[in-house]
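Quick start: read one record
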Amino acid sequence: MRRIVRLDVIDIELVERVQLNARQTNRELAKAVGRTTSSVWERVKRLEREGLILGYRAVIAPAMLGADIDIVVRLELRSSAPNGLWCFESELKSAPGVLGATRTGPGAYLLRAASPATVAWIEAAILRCGLTAVAFESVLAMEEIVPYRDPPIRALINGRATSESEGS
């Protein structure tokens, strides 16, 4: 079973601020939430250790590199090999052209691919893993209306914050 991290109002505000600007200093974060720099550093490190903050990244504009293709792939796979689906998911995790992958059911996936070559790579991975495609649909995304963004923390916690921690 999945563990739910307990957050207080300060944790929530810190995560919101880091989501908006991960490059701000601990001093800036501390000032914004009215805490000491060391207590903010400890809180952020705890949220990283607990697995809530998974990392920090730069978001690039693929079109600036001439990559204006985004392909959405819907798959339904059947496995004849005992570990076929596990094999396929492992391969997806190491594929540079797979931008995102979500399991939507047993053997069912939604993928985002960077290019037609990535779609061909997915087809080859299906064969390498001993799988059969029951459904394989790829659609070229014409225009991104709302770019992917991390979900806002307040929408995810749904009012489950604990009161502020003692002494933090």
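The chain has a mean pLDDT of 88.
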